[in-house]
Amino acid sequence: MKILVTGATGYIGKRLIPLLANDDHHVVCAVRDTLRADPNYGDIDTIDVVEADFLKPETLHNIPNDIDVAFYLIHSMSNSSKDFEALEERCAKNFKEQLEKSSVKQVIYLSGITNEDNLSKHLKSRKNVEDILKSSKYATTIFKAGIIVGSGSSSFEIIRDLVEKLPFMIAPKWLNTKTQPLAIRNVLSFLHKSVGREDLYNTSYDVFGPEILTYKEMLLQFAKVRGLQRTIVTVPVMTPKLSSYWLYFVTSTSYKLASALVDSMGVQIVGKPSNINELLDVEPISYKGAVELAFEKIEQNSIISSWKDSMVSSGRLRNQLHKYVNVPKYGCFKDYKERSVINAEKTIDKLWSIGGKNGWYYGTILWKIRGYMDKLFGGIGLRRGRTNPTEIDAGDALDFWRVIFANKTQQKLLLYAEMKLPGEAWLEFKIEDGLLKQTATFRPRGLWGRLYWYSVLPFHGFIFKGMINKLVDV
């Protein structure tokens, strides 16, 4: 079958695509920016990548018409836009209009459990998208999941931050809200096993794990898996805004995502039973089992996707990496350094391992202070780290940077700053003619931008010097 996967660079999409390809399907990955597509797809004959933005109907002609099945995995937990629901509605309508021109027989949509009367705006939007996608031209199969537990998922990483950093928590009352967490491997099983199943045409199912737990119980069970003793006290006086700040300062999430999560976590997410587990031969695993499996992946450095690499975690960018590949030359301040390279391969390996737990090789305490300052002023700080300790691709998050370009063959790495700045900043590394060339570029915005550059110039002098020296010291 020929299968279209939208949201192909997202947390679910990146994990679903290999499963479909392994089933001998021809997979068409729709992405807003081809730079963000997995570079390995180019080596697989049965995977095609097309650039399509469902907010821009003029780009949708790139989608082939001979599609058999389509996955709609476009959604966001970011509430950065006031017309968030309208944007999601436009995406769904444009998708439907385009797919109705094709030969598609089945559209599969991953939504959220929406059985309560009072829903968050994100769950209301999910429900609205379900209604929009329904068509007389094709069948829909809708799976409605709650909290998804897996290495790199936003809920998993936030719970991990809370449990591992706080031995004692004074927490908001929404920690007593009930939910039914589901392991990511079970979510993927439901999705890929439903392909072409005519008995699932025009159906909707809640999919959920075997236990009903409160968020507090999830935190305590997570702590037990990690061998940690934790005490949690819930208080009724913490407002949604205070709750959002609590998540923002303790975890690696952005404030906007924290606000969206707090909005949704006040809603009970308990699914309606059905026979879908028997139909697709899926046996959901327990929450503790899902956490244990997630840590197995983490210990093996085999995390396929992480919410931190999605643009939801971005402080500044919105999907189009192409706009930032060409570093500006005019009206900019630059810090340029070069050193002779003794062993290019080892220097490249060091570059591809920079940031995260490995740090920035020099002036680590100053990098941390800059991260704390960024967090204090509403930025993302250093807490995102990196998904893989030794591999990076365009689009990946790297502490408070975003990878714009990464090519080992061309021996070039380009990063774009996502911290709070009165301007824009790039950090480029490339090896040419036996030299490692390191360039920090800053394009100031107004007077404050210029004052900022001169205020940090003394620190740049020895931080960047020390860093390039460490990179070539093999």
Task: Tell me what the structure shows.
The protein has 474 residues and is of the alpha/beta class. The chain is 35% helix and 21% strand. The protein contains 14 helices and 19 strands. The strands form 5 sheets. The protein has a 7-stranded parallel sheet, with helices on both faces. Strands 14-19-18-17-16-15 form a 6-stranded antiparallel sheet. The chain has a two-stranded parallel sheet with strand order 7-10. Helix 2 (84-99) runs parallel beside helix 3 (121-133) and helix 6 (215-225) crosses helix 10. The longest helix is centred in the last third of the chain and has 27 residues, at 446-472. It is globular and about 65 Å long. The termini are far apart. The mean pLDDT is 87.
For the residues shown, what is the average pLDDT? 87
Oligomer: single chain
Spatial ordering of strands, largest sheet: 3-2-1-4-5-6-11
- Which percent bin holds the helix content? 25-40%
Radius of gyration: 23 Å
Q: What is the overall silhouette?
A: globular
Secondary structure layout plus pairing:
Blueprint (H helix, E strand, L loop, with lengths): L1 E5 L4 H12 L3 E6 L15 E5 L17 E4 L11 H16 L6 E7 L8 H13 L5 E7 L2 E2 L4 H12 L2 E5 L5 E2 L2 E2 H10 L9 E5 L5 E2 H11 L5 E5 L4 H11 L4 H11 L10 H5 L6 H13 L22 H4 L7 E8 L3 H8 L12 H13 L20 E2 L2 E7 L4 E6 L5 E10 L2 E10 L1 H27 L2
Parallel strand pairs: 1-2, 1-4, 2-3, 4-5, 5-6, 6-11, 7-10, 8-13
Antiparallel strand pairs: 9-12, 14-19, 15-16, 16-17, 17-18, 18-19
Helix pairs in contact: 1-5, 2-3, 4-6, 6-10, 7-8
